[in-house]
Amino acid sequence: MSSEGLTADVGSQVAVTRERRGRWERSSGLLRLAIEDRLALAGLIVLSVLIVLAVFGPLLWPQDPLAVKLSHTLQPPSFAHPMGTDGVGRDVFARFCAGARTSLIVATMVVLVSGVAGGAIGLVAGLSRGLTGVVLMRAMDAILAFPPLVLAMAVTLGLGAGVTAATIGIAITTVPYFARIIRSDVLRIRGLPLVEATVALGASKSRLIGRHVLPATLPTVLVLGTAAYGDAILTLAGLGFIGLGVQPPAPEWGTMITQGLQYALSGQWWVGVFPGLGVLGAVVGISLIGDRMRDLIDPTGTALGS
Amino acid sequence: MIVESSVSTPESDDRVLRVEGLRTGFPTREGMVNALDGVSFDLARRERLGIVGESGSGKSSLALSIMGLVPRPGRVLAGTVTLNGRPISRFGDERMSRVRGRQISIVFQDPLTALNPVMKVGAQVIEALRVHQPRLGRAALRRRAVELLDSVGIVNPQRRIDDYPHQYSGGMRQRVAIAMALANDPDVLIADEPTTALDATTQAEIVALLQRLADEHETAIVLISHNLALVSEFCDRVLIMYAGRVVEQADVPDVFREPAHPYTQALLGAIPTSGSSREDGLAAIPGSPPNLLKPAEGCPFEPRCALGQGKEICRTAKPPAVPIAGASFAECHFARPRHGAGVSASPRDETRTVGS
Amino acid sequence: MLRLIVTRISTAAAAIFGASILAFIFLRVTPGDPARLIVGPLASAKTLEAQRHAMGLDQSLWTQYRDFITSFIHGDWGFSYSAGRSVAGEIGSRLPATLELGLYAFVLAFVAALVAALLVTYRRRKEADNAARLFAFTALGVPPFWAGLLLLLIFSEHLHLLPGPEGRLSLATQPPGKITGFYTIDALLHGQLATFADAVRHLILPVLAFALVPFGYLFRLLRANLLEVSREQYLLVARSKGLTEWTAFRRHALPNACLPALTASGLMLGQLIIGSVLVETVFNWPGVGEYVVTAITRQDYAVVQTFVMLSACAFVLANAAVDVLYGVIDPRVRVSAAA
User: What is the ipTM of this complex?
Assistant: First the structure.
């Protein structure tokens, strides 16, 4: 009570009166609260549109994103080509949808792979008191020694440019964040008196912690996952821009922006502007959702830091 | 309706602080929470007034409202605070800042968070001095700060002045907070639960310190506490607060002998239904504090009251302030003037309409 | 204090060691045969063998790693055939351009973030806060090279207000004599106002594109810190002493909120490195990032290796320095580290 400090009395006055009204709101769940926040709702809508385009794009807009049509190069947006055509006459909208598919798939893979790998590493590092834990966390430090894009760049270069290499490269840069969170939760839970007591009674420590860690950590991991998802999309676009990501002619937002660069100054803005909007929409959409989730989980914003 | 302060009345010389019909609210999504719902009282020079109530009764809101420090989005909705004849509740931040710390000061409950952790203790004491005495030189400020720390019982103040707050214990930090509050000899000191966060021994030391300093500086003190034992020891007069209102005002000996309001009786553990008395002198009263979003139609204490629960009059009519003896009163339909005691017109009568 | 420095330096050294192994694996071991890349697909087995020997590729991995590290530490970073000179020389001559761009971008980002965070936290205007939050999210979601493209489209191609992607100066303008390597400062030092103006005009768009991401980070960080600090009781105590609301905020909340932002400056160096790679090419800015991108497309691996290693060293050391500095400034950290 004393630690509440500032105007504890005022706070309790407001809290007491809120209690009755607050109960039904809380019970109606996360989604409801996400919808109450207009920014998060906007994020949800933008992301949903992109997902629809990525999944059903070929059905909704049956044009081949790879079909070169030299008679129709650099057409401005029109009904025939909602986002215009590029330097070799390919339909930018079809490429945009295919690019959405690439970005969303890569980001999903990155989050899944790095989440599972990072979770496993964190769990092992937290449970082992010996050398294994130290070595694993030192390896994580080594990964964190690089600015994320630089490491992804090196990995992609080593494995040979392409979408698989890019996915692996981005996933590697993301693993330590998951590993650190899981590990600190394992350590925290292992130190709880209840857990120590149960272990003293003969329970299996690993199982016990596994059963307690996962539910307790899930919300944090979800929020981290949204951040990693956005970062993955951005890094993939960055790798594409450098020439290390998805290789042309396969459609990807980052390489599309790079191609658009040369036309931007001669007036054909649509080639590079639309794919950038795709990246922006996807990243902002997922971060707005993540931010709202973070607010719901941890209203003071202390657990995740910056 | 706001009652103008009457500076010219003969008794005003003796009244250093006058609070009239103070209403403070915090807007929430569900509506306005009325933390204070028409509070009035006077404070004489050198007087020691206790304010008692459960948490959530509006004690701290009262302290912050008087100081003009109600945190946004809360604000004072109505009423006046008059200090030394000046209506400080109408002062803007700039003008009020010249009053705070100079004429009226406050000590908060939690000493651990009262000091800026990255600033030396001395610098924070000096800040309190310099803001009101800008012409004092560096050396003089430092000398005064050492004196102040010495006067609140900090051992070896010349050295400790350059320490950081985390190097001080909780009790010592509360001493520093008191030193800062009294740095400019204010007329009024509000002490908001100054000992609640401390252990028993330290509590006694801090109370003794307050007592000594209040005597030395001739400071009037408003002691906010939920600890009736402390209030009975320290104060001349006591206000009992419930749901943002003063439900009883009484002199200290009387309130312990003959509490007039059922809430006070419950606080004192005077009636059997109130549950067992706790160590700190605060009885646990069954039921929970009232919903301030929807003020009761009748008496706010009715649902928990041993005397009036379910009674028609208590549910439907606001209880009047019934004069008990002297300036004492109780807001209860069943309160009666004490026999043999002369009852004067309550100073509250004129402001009764403000909050209700 | 000494203990803090020693532990921080040893963890930094461990991280750099680990990073060097990673860099070695991905840039020397997995890319296949760098010798084949150099001699070309048509070369005979004998030529290939000779090249492998010359590059030390027939040695054990351990020997190769040792050579890799020793030559890196000695500043022997190899020859860049895309630049036609040594990697060290080329990076050295390009560094000022990158630093000038980065410095202005970070000053802009910090000032803008601080002002915006103050505006939304001091008076707590809900609408302003939502607008600023949305802008910060947008800034963080924009690929910097795309922001550069948009800025060029609007201000150069469409409005003709600012120069296009022609580097640091117009073709007609001579660079000022080198003192610091920053064209703006050097031009002023030489009193060449026209050159100064030209340099500034060329800086505006890349600086804006560069500043977006750090602005987003810093705004979110400062906003969270300011909100947290403005709830602190010592702020109320400061006001109760007689400080006005703004003075109390300025003296007690602002420094305490900016202090943790210091820890982000290590992160910001990472952003500087990434930003340089992603922005410079768009503007033909002759900095390190543009060099690296060119080197990648031309498979000039010596450049990439050096850049990757240098990035890790700079990033790790900056973070370590920030931690130590933070310990110097915040007495609480100092104590907990010594305990």
Answer: 0.88
